[in-house]
Amino acid sequence: MEYSVKENKDIESSVPLSSTEPEEWTMEIKSNPGLFDLNLKELWRYRDLISLIVKRDFVSAYKQTVLGPVWHFAEPMVTTLTYAFIFGGIANISTDGLPRILFYLSGIMLWTYFSNCLLNTSSTFNANAHIFGKVYFPRLVMPITTTISSMIALGMQFILFILLVLFYYVRGENINTNIYALLTPLLVIMIAGTGLGLGMLLSSVTNKYRDIAKLVGVSMRLLMFATPIIYPLSKVPDKYKPIIMLNPMTSIVETFRYGWLGTGSFSWNNLGYSLIFMLVSLFFGILAFNKVQKTAIDTI
Amino acid sequence: MTVVVRVENVSKKYQLGNIGTQSLKGDFNRWWARMRGKEDPFAKIGDESQHQNGEFWALKDINFEVKQGEAVGIIGKNGAGKSTLLKILSRITNPTIGNVKIKGRIASLLEVGTGFNPDLTGRDNIFLNGAILGMTKREIAAKFDEIVDFSGIEKFIDTPVKRYSSGMYVRLAFAVAAHLESEILILDEVLAVGDTEFQKKCLGKMDDVAHKQGRTILFVSHSMQAVTTLTNTCIFLKNGQLKSQGFTQEVIKGYLQSDPSALEQLIYIDSPSNLEPKVTKVEIESSESSNSQAYGKPMTILFNISTPSPIKSAALSFQVMNSMDQPVTHLLVMDSEIPIARKSGLFELQCHIPKVRLYPGNYTLKVHFADRFSKQKYQTIERICPFEVGVYGEIRDYYWGTGNAMYVEDCDWSVVCMDQYSKV
């Protein structure tokens, strides 16, 4: 009896507190925020942080190196030369009649960008565990900065690529740059979006299971061979073609080569498939990332 | 006063072993064991009330409110849930149950220099760190001069911070944080860094922020001293639950009495070393319990020293420091007066003060240990054995206002009648 009276009192005293004051809170930290509670407005407020981190990545990556940003060219160039020698010179894999350097460089730079976006994003929580554990800012900032930083590197490689295209053109090689080259910005966005989307999807798992992070690293290396990077799509036997076409990167790489170099294949259907793939992966990626970010720090 | 932070029924659950197997195999084993109705092979054994079915409740049903302009301390021993609470308030992790409502911009400082990049200059790091803490470029630019001024490293502002001394690094980092534009500031023991002078500057700045600028502060610290100086009210957490809440002095008193391990901090203990002479223990035997000393009553200070080799001319001394960290008295003992540690081993020294004349207030000890022959200073131990001098049982028609004096001299008053006026 006494107990129930006491309980009533408690309710009476606590109810007016919350109901009579129509209080305005700037922020609520909830135990179970909605799945679509993205808070993009907040992300926008942190745009300065994004630009500063991009700047930091760029500046600090080449501090105390003599060549500085030249390394951005050196790395893909070395890979390109190696591939040109091994896959072209020794294994004699066809390049659809294109100069080997151009053929491999175009594939390598696009693939490197995709792979960087995906791998860096997928390890967002583990790589930034320290900073995430000490300060709050929208976690999406980190994948976005990675994407932008890698895009800068891609941009520099792209300049190198154009110079080489000009060089071979002047030398009279069979290069037919056409109107489809204008699709390049879209292609880059598609690579970024797919890498980001898949990366975010994986980041929600890798932060709990470190095994996945290793697995992702290995699969990315293998996946490269399921993309027409070191071989043209035209040389893929018909029975394997559908499998290769499932890879969203396939049509992107092929479109890029088609636009800039004039060989390869292009179809709006295939590109449309890659676009839808990107949108779907981005959608689920953001959802998963958003869900995991709230408590990710507990699992790292 | 409006409520700016409201914590409602906040609980936080952790999986035991911190979701812990970190691998698919581990989780698979756990799942397999559960399917067969066996015990979780990764569960840790513990019988505390916080542990249930492989879960650990770091916080349970926390409710409190903070009003605008209040400075609130959060105390409790390690593992009481202080850090978890701060993490939830600063949005690093979400609560399992419950809500936190916040009015105004919130900035948290759980560490100084988060995100500092060693390769960047001081200038770049101010911007980067400021942005990480939630400021925009424009806000930082507006405060830039103030920040540099406070840090006192104008000359090196364009030097990469990896060339900084650790002190300079901390100064710069703290300077950025201290100039955050936010209505609510969350602080975690960041004051435990830097040199004493800078620490005081920081404390001063914090005090300024809390009391003059009317900002709200939530402050976690193990230093009762800092909590007392900075905060008016306190929250005491124990095993994830809110134990008491109220005026700082009272909550601290309750905390010290209820928590035997908090009392251990009243005693300085260190393990002996095979390499060098060391002070291994300093303990105050005060007239009242838990380092409370009555003014005018005797007090004894016990020192244990250990030395692996004989010391030729040992000297041990201690200063009594007041709450402003100023020395009030310096008492010393030397080998030339009484032989100390002339052979290797463990020694106990006692210093007996027959009548404590320190003015009522809070004090700590600063202990020095040296060899006067080799001119080698073994140790300086600062801010240990905090004790409080109070007036107990001394009934006098006198107001012992804080800070009126450093100590009270022994004296005898007498009144002598010199001349007598003629009858009025």
UniProtKB/TrEMBL annotation, chain B:
<dbReference type="InterPro" id="IPR050683">
    <property type="entry name" value="Bact_Polysacc_Export_ATP-bd"/>
</dbReference>
<keyword id="KW-0813">Transport</keyword>
<dbReference type="InterPro" id="IPR003439">
    <property type="entry name" value="ABC_transporter-like_ATP-bd"/>
</dbReference>
<keyword id="KW-0547">Nucleotide-binding</keyword>
<dbReference type="GO" id="GO:0005524">
    <property type="term" value="F:ATP binding"/>
</dbReference>
<feature type="domain" description="ABC transporter">
    <location>
        <begin position="43"/>
        <end position="264"/>
    </location>
</feature>
<keyword id="KW-0067">ATP-binding</keyword>
<dbReference type="InterPro" id="IPR015860">
    <property type="entry name" value="ABC_transpr_TagH-like"/>
</dbReference>
<dbReference type="InterPro" id="IPR003593">
    <property type="entry name" value="AAA+_ATPase"/>
</dbReference>
<protein>
    <submittedName>
        <fullName>Polysaccharide ABC transporter ATP-binding protein</fullName>
    </submittedName>
</protein>
<dbReference type="InterPro" id="IPR027417">
    <property type="entry name" value="P-loop_NTPase"/>
</dbReference>
<dbReference type="Pfam" id="PF00005">
    <property type="entry name" value="ABC_tran"/>
</dbReference>
<comment type="similarity">
    <text>Belongs to the ABC transporter superfamily.</text>
</comment>
